[in-house]
Specification:
By secondary structure, the chain is α/β, with parallel strands linked by helices. It contains twelve helices and 13 strands.
Length: 395
C-alpha cells in the first residue's frame, strides 16, 4: 500500500416502514426487492461502488473531524508515511451530530447538520490519503446525536414526566435506538461517504445510553414495541445497517464496548458480542484499560496494566468468536490517551504494551484512539521495521 510513500509523493497542498417514518431510498432499477421485517432490502448482483480494499492488516489512527479538516492532516499524513500506520478512521458524523462535510441527505439538511461541517474540501483530502496509500474509514455515530434529537424530538428519548427530551448525566440528548429512522439516517450518511470515496464504514454508539438504572427508569422510548428488549432493538438496528451497506461493496464494521467480550448479558445497553461478530465484517472492541473497574480480571488497578487488560479482554473475545460458524475480524481500539489525572500517563511504552498483547494473540490489526488525534511517533514502528518479528514477551 505504501508505494506512493516510497516514491515520495507529497500532495499535501491539496488538503493543506416500520417504527419510524422515513422515505426508503432504493436504486433506480433494483434487480429484486425483498420485504423484511423492519425494512425493504434490495439485492444487487454486484457492489454499487468499486472502492479499493486492502489485504494488509489495518493499523489505524483515529482522526477527528477538526484534525481532518485542518492543517493537522498534513502532520498525520507525514506520521503515517514514516511508520506502520496505513489507515485513518475519520469522523463523518461525530457525537455532536455535526458532519464532516456538506451532505445531500435530506434529513441532514433539514436539521442543520450541514451548517456545522468541519471541512468543505473533503474530496481533495481523500485524494491526498489515496496518494499516500492511506485507507480511509468513515466513522458514523448513531444513537448519541443531540442535534438530531433536538430537531426530531419524535425520534428521540423523552422524559417520563412529559417535560421534554431525556438527557444523560452530562446533559446530552439521545435519539431513540428503537426507531428505525435513526438507523436509516446513519445508513444514508454511510452510503454518501462511500460514494465520496471512503473505503470502509464504521458505526459507533450502536447502543442505548450507559446510564444508571435510576436515570434510565425516567427515559421513554416511544418507538419500542411491547415487550421489546434493548438487545432486540440493537439487533434490528444492526440488520438495517448491514442490509443497506453490504451491497455497496465495502466492509461493515462496529465499535462496541470492550466489556462485551466477557459480559454474560447486554451490559444494559443492548450490546452482546455474538450479535455483532456473527454479522459484521469487523468488530472493534474498545479495550481501553482506563475504562475497566478495579478488580476486573483480578487486577487492582487495570489502567496500570495495559498489557494484561488487553490480553485478557481479547483472549475472551477470540474464545467466544470460535464458537460461531462465521465470525468477524477483531480489530481492537487501543488507548493512546491519558484519562484525566489517572496514573500512569500513557506514554509510548503503555501503547506498545497493548499492541504487543494483541499481536501475541495473532491480532495484527488495531486502531489507536486519542480524542484529540495527538499521537506519539515513538508509539509506532518505523515503516522499515514493520515486518520485524514481535519479541516473545508473554506473561
Amino acid at each position: 500500500m505504501k508505494l506512493a510513500r516510497q516514491a515520495g509523493a507529497l500532495l499535501l497542498s491539496a488538503a493543506t416502514l416500520s417504527r419510524g417514518l422515513f422515505a426508503q431510498q432504493l436504486p433506480s432499477s433494483p434487480d429484486k426487492l425483498q420485504l423484511r421485517g423492519v425494512e425493504l432490502r434490495y439485492v444487487l448482483p454486484e457492489p454499487l461502488f468499486d472502492n479499493e480494499q486492502t489485504s494488509e492488516p489495518i493499523k489505524a489512527l483515529y482522526v477527528n473531524a477538526w484534525a481532518f479538516g485542518s492543517t493537522k492532516l498534513a502532520q498525520l499524513v507525514r506520521l503515517a508515511d514514516s511508520t506502520e500506520i496505513n489507515a485513518f478512521v475519520v469522523d463523518v458524523k461525530d457525537d455532536t451530530g455535526c458532519l464532516l462535510y456538506p451532505s445531500d441527505v435530506k434529513v441532514a439538511e433539514e436539521i442543520g447538520a450541514t451548517k456545522c461541517v468541519r471541512t468543505r474540501d473533503v474530496e481533495s483530502r481523500l485524494d491526498t490519503l489515496r496518494a499516500h496509500d492511506i485507507y480511509a474509514i468513515a466513522r458514523i455515530v448513531v444513537a448519541k446525536d443531540p442535534l438530531l434529537a433536538e430537531r426530531r424530538p419524535h425520534w428521540s428519548v423523552q422524559n417520563r414526566d412529559g417535560s421534554g427530551l431525556w438527557r444523560d448525566r452530562i446533559g446530552t440528548a439521545w435519539v431513540d435506538a428503537y426507531n428505525d429512522s435513526v438507523w436509516i439516517y446513519a445508513a444514508l450518511l454511510a452510503r454518501e461517504a462511500v460514494k465520496l470515496g471512503f473505503n470502509e464504514v464504521q458505526f459507533d454508539y450502536v447502543r442505548f445510553p450507559d446510564e444508571p438504572k435510576e436515570a434510565m427508569a425516567e427515559a421513554v422510548f416511544a418507538a419500542r414495541k411491547h415487550g421489546e428488549t434493548q438487545r432486540e432493538g440493537v439487533q434490528a438496528g444492526i440488520a438495517i445497517l448491514t442490509h443497506r451497506i453490504q451491497p455497496l461493496g465495502v466492509p461493515v464494521t462496529f465499535d462496541i464496548f470492550g466489556l462485551t467480550s466477557s459480559a454474560t448479558g447486554d451490559l444494559g445497553i443492548g450490546q452482546v458480542w455474538e450479535d455483532f461478530v456473527s454479522v459484521a465484517d469487523v468488530v472493534l472492541p474498545m479495550v481501553y484499560p482506563s475504562h475497566y473497574y478495579r478488580g476486573s480480571y483480578g487486577l487492582a488497578w487495570p489502567n496500570g496494566e495495559p498489557y494484561r487488560v488487553v490480553r485478557y479482554a481479547l483472549s475472551e473475545a477470540l474464545e467466544r468468536s470460535r464458537t460461531l460458524a462465521k465470525a468477524a475480524t477483531i480489530r481492537p481500539y487501543l488507548q493512546a490517551f491519558t484519562l484525566g489525572r489517572r496514573k500512569p500517563r500513557y506514554t509510548p511504552h503503555e501503547i506498545r504494551e497493548q499492541i504487543r498483547a494483541a499481536e501475541e494473540l495473532g491480532i495484527d490489526t488495531w486502531v489507536l484512539w486519542n480524542p484529540r488525534s495527538v499521537y506519539q511517533r515513538d508509539s509506532l514502528r518505523p515503516y522499515r521495521e514493520q515486518a520485524a518479528t514481535i519479541p516473545d514477551g508473554s506473561q
